[in-house]
Amino acid sequence: AIEEIRRVLKLRGLFHLFVPCEGEVHTLHGLLARVGWRAKEAYGGHIRRFTKQDAERLLREQGFTVTGSRWSGHLLNQIVDVVYFTCLQVLRKNLGTSVEGYIERPGAGIVSG
Fold first, then answer.
1. Which of 66, 81, 89, 104 is most buried (CB neighbours < 10 A)?
2. DSSP state string for 67-107
3. Residue 56: pLDDT above 90?
4. By the 8 A CB rule, do 76 and 29 touch?
5. Other beta carbons less than 10 A from residue 91's beta carbon
6. What is the mean pLDDT of residues 85-107?
7. Nearest to residue 52, comparing CAs of 70, 74, 33?
8. Which residues have C-beta within 8 Å of that of residue 58, sequence separation ≥ 6?
9. Is this prediction's pTM over 0.85?
């Protein structure tokens, strides 16, 4: 996907993205992963435990210049995410979507297309 963004981005264009850096030791996901918690991987299916350095390295390898970054992974969001996937694990039930997936469903009124 990053290669395609690089291909279509205009010269000196700006590319803004959000990367959940769940590999960082100071996140709830990062701490729990160190003790073996894998519920999000089992029921989310696409988790990558990036650190900020991982994400910036991948972008630079594709020719991007990283001009800034900031932290926005609020603790409440992390708690909701961990509780959601832990509940799925306890119930042994995969609902086929993440918390974000519910927001993107047609008729949710948040994402239009």
1. 81
2. --------HHHHHHHHHHHHHHHHHT---SS-HHHHHTSTT
3. yes
4. no
5. 10
6. 72
7. 70
8. 2
9. no
> Would you list the domain boundaries of the chain?
2-9+17-103
- Given a contact cutoff of 8 angstroms between Cβ atoms, the answer to whether 63 and 6 are in contact is yes
The number of residues making up the chain comes to 113
Q: Return the H-helix or E-strand segment holding 58.
A: helix 52-61
The token pair at 110 is 């948040």
User: First CA to last CA across the chain, in angstroms?
Assistant: 20
Q: In whole angstroms, give the CA distance from residue 35 to residue 72.
A: 24
- For the record, the structure tokens of 51 come out as 């650190």
